[in-house]
Each structure stands twice: as structure tokens, then as C-alpha cells.
Automatic annotation (TrEMBL), chains A, B:
<dbReference type="InterPro" id="IPR000092">
    <property type="entry name" value="Polyprenyl_synt"/>
</dbReference>
<keyword id="KW-0808">Transferase</keyword>
<keyword id="KW-0479">Metal-binding</keyword>
<comment type="function">
    <text>Supplies octaprenyl diphosphate, the precursor for the side chain of the isoprenoid quinones ubiquinone and menaquinone.</text>
</comment>
<comment type="similarity">
    <text>Belongs to the FPP/GGPP synthase family.</text>
</comment>
<dbReference type="InterPro" id="IPR033749">
    <property type="entry name" value="Polyprenyl_synt_CS"/>
</dbReference>
<dbReference type="InterPro" id="IPR008949">
    <property type="entry name" value="Isoprenoid_synthase_dom_sf"/>
</dbReference>
<dbReference type="GO" id="GO:0008299">
    <property type="term" value="P:isoprenoid biosynthetic process"/>
</dbReference>
<dbReference type="GO" id="GO:0046872">
    <property type="term" value="F:metal ion binding"/>
</dbReference>
<dbReference type="GO" id="GO:0106350">
    <property type="term" value="F:all-trans-octaprenyl-diphosphate synthase activity"/>
</dbReference>
<dbReference type="Pfam" id="PF00348">
    <property type="entry name" value="polyprenyl_synt"/>
</dbReference>
<keyword id="KW-0460">Magnesium</keyword>
<protein>
    <recommendedName>
        <fullName>Octaprenyl diphosphate synthase</fullName>
        <ecNumber>2.5.1.90</ecNumber>
    </recommendedName>
</protein>
């Protein structure tokens, strides 16, 4: 059995995505070829925009999970290549639309597509990639996999609208926030993992295990992202500390600080998040309050909680290198924060 | 055999969509129920926006075509209800995104969703409806129908990007323009028609006939729309005459006037379309030039050309009320211009 890195606080920072990268390297080379080919078009703006995002240094965690989840159950066809590519296209389409919705200027240290080519092109190229994703899924021919991914597409969008409707609402509870990120982030991780056993024709228990792994890994991933936004540094992250704050996003660190704060502190949060008084002084004060109430530490604890559920979901499965690599990814996602 | 209205110029204005409406009334009642149910969400903004568009008086030509195209070949299941609803959702999603891309204020005499709820919500609710459309298609379980509709989704988006990239380019040829509208408008009509024989398990010839009908009807429909934008009146159309002009859209009436014009007139078009000098005086001048070169009349002739191809596509099919109603719809689409 490979290294299963403990999720205990004492062992942070040792986990790596490398075992997963190595295990899926041959398949990922084919995914990368398919990405380039299916993002191709005589309309030059399409491959330009698609490649801007696709080549901008994402880890491609989601397609690697699809590949490993299929191989783990002995899948030997090539449908997993197309499904993994579809998953990455769905993710890319979501990023394009998100950047328009959030009016973001930077992503992973580069200008967003909407800053280079405009909001209009970002919306339409996102639509194109989503269409291409569905075409590839149809080629694979598994109605079950199609159902899982189509449902995810719909759930993700619903989660995004929900988040938009609840934007700047400091009364958002932790439960409500979790429901939003379950839809907007975890649903794609969940679908990416679940379609593996589905095309490998594994059993229902295996399918449920991978779905649970994906969902909980996605929740942990998003919560760490939320923590990083207040704790990382711009060069490492490719985004500036406090972006979420400046955009008035109510993420878990804010929710915890707000709920645990005094009346005066809650008034500060209202001014900062709802009225948009979010200059550097306000950000400093916000980060001070987060420290006072251990909001970042608690957000990371919550992430670790979901990480543990994800690990237990895979626990009863047979001992495979894929399982071990996927277990290590949980801790890798959480250790990003250190 | 029902009334097949001649497409000759002499018989304009007699055709009606009523036979198609009557034939599909019972099925459309089920489509309307499914629309309401599948546009439902606990996130209130979703049904609000969806219903704003869905209830705003569109003719629902595309879903009626799907229903008639399935019944025409004796289809007796209920997959056509779901496919017709999917087609309408794809159309609605496209409208939501189009209005954002075109920065449109009005559609069918009402404020656009983006004016009421914002661009962000319009993008995301469009994504949600597209996801719901794919889920319904998956429920029907026909991989062939899924392939046709997923391909259409991708082609439509590609056409829109193409149009955006070629925006305000007066050197666009008629051929290039036709390729754009074939993708952005005709592809959905084509798919809407083609999935009928597909789920009814009709033959390849029947499938090809309906695809050709849809494509050519869609081309005619868009060209008449282009003509109407310079010739209708605001109250009837729910949009203002000259909207395309003010948005700098290079449609066929502009292409023909530009290509047939003098050097001085071409300079006027450059100023109007490329430099955005498009006030009422410029619009008057543009419409004067269109009259001089019969650009509206020729656009309508082009539409009639495609209408004739659509009619001939259905000609060899058996004599059914659906076929007759679909033939009459061609002339109805063209007669809107009178």
C-alpha cells in the first residue's frame, strides 16, 4: 500500500499531487491533445481564449480525478479520456463565466480572458466549450455518465445564481454557505469522480464512494481557497490577498468573524461588505478580526473535516495506486494553505 | 391535403401559423407545464428570469416544429415533449446570453432580463437553462438526438463568436454572413426539426428532409428578421426600427447596400457602422440607400429562396397534416414582413 498521508494537523505539508500526476501522465497527454483539438475552430478567437485559460497553469485536478477513478476499477477503453476532457471544458467554461460575473481582472497571475477579449467573447466561448463538452460526452455513449455531468452543469449554475442572489448578505449561515459551495464547486469534483466507476461499470457502492470522495474533496478545496484568499501571498497564488474581500464575497472566514464578533464589529463588516468600504485599511482590520476569532484556522478545520469524510469514502475500496494517490490529493489540497 | 400556400410573391400575407398551433396544442400544453417545472428552483431569481422570457410572447415556433416533426412520423411516446422543451430552453438560454453580448435593452417590447436583473444573472440563468435542457435530453435516452442537439449548442456558440469577431466589418461578404446565420440561427431550427424523425425512428431520408427544412426555414426566418429591423414599426415588433443599425450590426440589408453603393456611400456606411455615427439622421439616410438599392426587397427575395428549398425538402414526404402545417409556416415566416 502506498503512502496514505494522515490528515492530522501534525503532518501538514508533506502531501503531494505528484503520485496522481505520475499515475495519470500517459492519459493526461491524450487529454491535453484532445483539449487542443476540441478547442479548435476556424473562428480564431475561440482557440485563443480557450488556450489562454487552459495553458494558464491550472493543476487539472478534475480531469486527473476522472482518469484515476476510471482506471481504479480496471477501465481499459478510451471513454475516460473524453470524459476527463469534458470535465476540464466544463470547468473552463465556468471560469470564463465566473470572471464575467465577478468582474475579475486577474486569475492565476494572468489577466482574465474578459480583460483581454471582453465580456462578450468570454460568455460566448464559455458556451462553445460547454457545447463541445456535451458532444464529447455523447460520443462516449454512457447515458449514466451523461446524466451525472448534465446534472452537475445545471447544479453548478444554480449554485452560482444562488450565490449571486445572496451576495453581500452577512446573515448567510454557515449551512447556507456550504450549500452554495457544494453546488458551485463540489458538484463538478463529485461528477468528475463518479463518472470513473460508471464507465468502468463498477458497482453502486463504488460509484457512491467516488461521488462522496469528490463532493467532500470539493468542499475542502473551496474552503481552503477561501482561507487562502486571506492568507496567501499574491505571487504564489496568482491572485491578490483580499480579492474576495474587495469583491464583497461572503465566504466562511467572513461568516465566522461576523457571527462571532461584537455589535461594533458586525457594523464594521456591514460597512465593508455591504457598503463596499473595502480599502487596504479595512482589509487590515478584517484580517485582524479573523485572527481574533481564529476564523482562518476554523475554516481550515472545517476543510479538514470534509477531507476526512472524503478519505473514509475511499477507505473500503481495494488497495490500488489510484486510491492511494487520490487519498494523498486530499491532504495536498488542504496543505496548500501552509 | 391541407392548404399549401404558394410562396409566390402574389400570395403574400395569407399564410398562418395557426394550423401548426392547432395541431400541436395538446402537446404544447404539456411542454408549457414542463417548462414551468424545469425552470423551477428554490433560488427564486431563476424562475423569475426564466418566466420573464418564456412568458414574453414568443411564438414557440421551435418546440412546435419538434413536436410536429415527431408526430408526422407516427411517434407516440413522450420523448418529443422533453426534446421540445429542451429546444425552447436552449433558445431561451441563447436569448439571455445574446442580450448580454449585444447590450440590448428591449426584446419583444419588454425590458430585457439583463436590464431588470443584471448581466450577471442573465449569464448564469442561461447556463442553468442549458444544463436543464441537457438533463431532459438525457432522460429521453436517444444518443442520436443528444448528438444533434449538443452539436447545435456548440455550433450556435461558435457562430455567435464568429459574428462578434466580424462585428462592424463592412467587408463581410454575403456568403460569410450566411455562414454566420446558418450557425447562430438556422442550427437550432435544424436540430429542432431533425430530432423529430430521429426519436420516431424514421429513415435517413426523412431525417435529412427535416434537417434541410429546419436549416432553410431558419435562414429565411433570420433574413426576414433582418429586413424587419429596417421596415417594421416599433409597436408591432416590440423592438425599434433600426436597432441593428444602432448596434452597428452588419446584416444582409447593410451588406447589399454597401456593396452596391458608390464610394461616397460606402464612406457613409463606414462612418455609421464602424465609427458609430448612427443617429436618426444617419438611420434615415441608411434607409434611403436601402430603398435606392432595393436592399430590403432583395433580402426578402433571398429569404424566399431558402423558403423554397425548405418546402422542397418536405415535398416527397407523405401527405400529413403536420407536413402541411410546416409548409405553411415557411410562408408565414416570410409574410411577417408585409
Amino acid at each position: 500500500m502506498g503512502v496514505v498521508v494522515s490528515l492530522d494537523e501534525g503532518k501538514k505539508g508533506e502531501a503531494s499531487v505528484k503520485p496522481l500526476v505520475d499515475l495519470t501522465a500517459a492519459d493526461m497527454a491524450r487529454v491535453n491533445e484532445l483539449i487542443l483539438s476540441k478547442a479548435g475552430s476556424d473562428v480564431e478567437m475561440i482557440p485563443e481564449i480557450a488556450n489562454h485559460l487552459i495553458s494558464s497553469g491550472g493543476k487539472r485536478l478534475r480531469p486527473m480525478i476522472t482518469l484515476a477513478a476510471a482506471r481504479m476499477f480496471g477501465y481499459s477503453g478510451d471513454g475516460h479520456i473524453k470524459l476527463a476532457t469534458s470535465v476540464e471544458f466544463m470547468h473552463t467554461a465556468t471560469l470564463l463565466h465566473d470572471d464575467v460575473v465577478d468582474e475579475s481582472d486577474m486569475r492565476r497571475g494572468k489577466q482574465t480572458a474578459r480583460m483581454v477579449w471582453g465580456n462578450q467573447a468570454s460568455v460566448l466561448v464559455g458556451d462553445f466549450l460547454l457545447g463541445q463538452a456535451f458532444r464529447m460526452m455523447v460520443e462516449v455513449g454512457s447515458l449514466k455518465a451523461l446524466d451525472i455531468l448534465a446534472t452537475a452543469a445545471s447544479v453548478i449554475a444554480e449554485g452560482e445564481v444562488w450565490q449571486l442572489a445572496a451576495a453581500k448578505n452577512l446573515e448567510t449561515t454557515e449551512d447556507e454557505y456550504l450549500a452554495v459551495i457544494k453546488a458551485k464547486t463540489a458538484a463538478l469534483f463529485s461528477a468528475a469522480a463518479e463518472v470513473g466507476p460508471v464507465i468502468a461499470q463498477a458497482g453502486r457502492a463504488e460509484q457512491a464512494a467516488l461521488r462522496s470522495y469528490g463532493t467532500n474533496l470539493g468542499l475542502a478545496f473551496q474552503l481552503i481557497d477561501d482561507a487562502l484568499d486571506y492568507g496567501g501571498n499574491a505571487r504564489d497564488l496568482g491572485k491578490n490577498t483580499g480579492d474576495d474581500f474587495r469583491e464583497g464575497k461572503v465566504t466562511l472566514p467572513v461568516i465566522l468573524s461576523y457571527r462571532r464578533g461584537t455589535a461594533a464589529e458586525r457594523a464594521f463588516w456591514k460597512t465593508a461588505i455591504e457598503d463596499g468600504v473595502n480599502d487596504d485599511a479595512a482589509l487590515d482590520k478584517a484580517m485582524g478580526l479573523m485572527t481574533r476569532y481564529n476564523a482562518i484556522g476554523e475554516t481550515i478545520s472545517r476543510a479538514r473535516h470534509f477531507g476526512n469524510i472524503a478519505a473514509d469514502a475511499l477507505a473500503p475500496l481495494g488497495d490500488t495506486p489510484q486510491r492511494d494517490a487520490m487519498l494523498e490529493v486530499i491532504d495536498f489540497c488542504i496543505s496548500r494553505v501552509n
